[in-house]
Amino acid sequence: MEFTLNEGKELIKFARKNIINYLETEKRLKVPKKLKEKFNEKMGAFVTLNKKVGDEKQLRGCIGITQPVFPLIKTIADVSLSAAFEDFRFPQITDMSNIVLEISILTVPKLIKVDKPEEYLEKIKIGRDGLYIKKGFNKGLLLPQVPIEHGRNWDVKTFLEHTCMKARLPTNAWKSEDTKLYSFQALIFEEKEPNGEIVQKER
User: Is residue 118 located within the same domain as residue 21?
Assistant: First the structure.
């Protein structure tokens, strides 16, 4: 999976315009033909919105599609609006002037195969891997950046426990035989300031 910084900038700028256009008109922004042609490969992606407060960032919305079911630009178009207006954890975005955008383009999640649950502690790498958990009808996902941002310094066990909680499962559900854990990686682009310089995050 390879994307240039300029391509990351195009995606972030489109996501911001899409949200602002909906704020102003309550309509989705039409995707330019150039972007449709350039970002037509089916890929999963998440859009994260953080509120900038001084030097700190506060999460204000994060929605995505895990699997590569839609062309990337459609995924970004859909989830940017969902992150702004449909994340049930937060009130809807009403002003983008203090919001920093982040886009995570995902690899396809792969099942982590283990003989015993303790092996997860060796196979998962903090900062590199995101986690997707499934048990019965419950499922949850945490992006690779979650354990190391917003002042967190999680080890793998803590990461596993929080992924379980995201799926509304007991914190030790990762130890169950009928739990399936998948890992994935992400290419991440973000604004350093609201509508400011866009960079690729290094891991």
Answer: no
